[in-house]
């Protein structure tokens, strides 16, 4: 106060008059007291691992776009929550597990992120899971689906907004498996592919179907002739395919006239780029994780409209909704802890937490932190104005119908 009085009494007046030693009135003192400088806002950092290059490049880019949209949706465009700024850093794993480890370590050590999100590849994700445990940081898995992520390789810091292979299996098997049905399977030789086939076969067998052939191909292969020949030789009623990536087998299946040999193909409806190679599969019945027309929710309407505004009229694709869901789950968790990013408090808040997504309500199951969610039974139909067969809703498969088994032996 003495310093303030001295400053007020020794300076020149605003009118240019001489200095005076007369103390200013108390009201004047209060008026010229500078406002306290606000403390810097706290920043919560999120590290996002995605395949921005490599075989799953399109998936990583979809997830990244969806994540940014999700942050904006959940914070009403402010990118602030519970008094903290939200910052996210996206790193390219190149669809290589060793690169994923390096990028995750950089995010944790150098960038000091409070959360990890990712990644596009199950292999990349499985490589990074031990780091979540080592650094004691919550990791939200999106869009990797291998069952082992919330199964044998799981730890308590892992939450998953992506569906897992068992949820896909329940949807896929419900579409085709019946007593006495003979089914062959085809998948990439990876954690994603093998977990997906195992989960599908388990459900299909319970429904009375017989698995007569299993074929696996190198995830980077472009020639599937030998695999397809063995499938044809097994004479199945259906061929169920688990696949992800740009090097899909659809064209070669068409060229080798698999369906003309009486084998019906069934699979999950993939992203739009892959759907463009599936015009000869019009009429196929299968399932979908997400297609922009399927969910009838307010959040999905916002996503579709906003995506078109930001990206030259393009609609969101297969994993855009998943990236958005991951972002929303993190913001909702931060709200529940009132900005506290202590991992133990976050885990307590997120176990059993329900949150609204483009697909509807998701719930993190307390036992393994897998998000329970709806999927969609669909049929591919030709539509004027589209250069790919459109997944048309047959019925929504509720999250109760697609609930997967708990596999982590918690």
From TrEMBL:
<dbReference type="InterPro" id="IPR028082">
    <property type="entry name" value="Peripla_BP_I"/>
</dbReference>
<dbReference type="InterPro" id="IPR051010">
    <property type="entry name" value="BCAA_transport"/>
</dbReference>
<keyword id="KW-0732">Signal</keyword>
<protein>
    <submittedName>
        <fullName>ABC transporter permease</fullName>
    </submittedName>
</protein>
<comment type="similarity">
    <text>Belongs to the leucine-binding protein family.</text>
</comment>
<feature type="domain" description="Leucine-binding protein">
    <location>
        <begin position="43"/>
        <end position="381"/>
    </location>
</feature>
<dbReference type="Pfam" id="PF13458">
    <property type="entry name" value="Peripla_BP_6"/>
</dbReference>
<dbReference type="InterPro" id="IPR028081">
    <property type="entry name" value="Leu-bd"/>
</dbReference>
